[in-house]
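help with this:

***
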Amino acid sequence: MTEDEFDAFYASAFPRVVGQVYSFTGDHGQAQDVVQEAFIRAWDRRSHFLATEAPEAWIRIVAMRLAVSHRRRARRWLELVRRTPLPGAAPGPDPGHVALVAALRQLPEPQRLAIVLHHLCDLSVEQVAAETGAPAGTVKARLSRGRSALAKLLPANEVGVAGGSSGKKEDDHG
């Protein structure tokens, strides 16, 4: 079957087969999808497709089988969903974390990046320097300035980063 012959067959048979499969499934979108998939499979086998005595019947059978498979998968998925208990409501973000993020947004990006990598990602000054491409001394200065800015932006009891309780040794900072 040439490409033009296949195109002509598709143009004439597609609406008819979609109507037939729609009658079976009751879902027009699904009918279009499975008929399209059947035509794709026919296209992949077009050298043998001509030998089929009833190509439209072949398309219809494949589309109906696909629709049944879709229905079975949907039913299994629904059963799984029904058996799986709903998770409890997820707690909202910690107010301290929200305050920290808001304060971090006010810092210049280089300071913010240094603070996040060092205190939240637990990287050493040397690792932060390697990731950012800045010298270690510059990273230490950014950390110092960033911590000072955060101390002014956050209440003392809000976040440990501003108060120096990150677990990092003081010699990492300067």
Q: What stands out?
A: The CA atoms of residues 156 and 163 lie 7 Å apart. The radius of gyration is 32 Å.
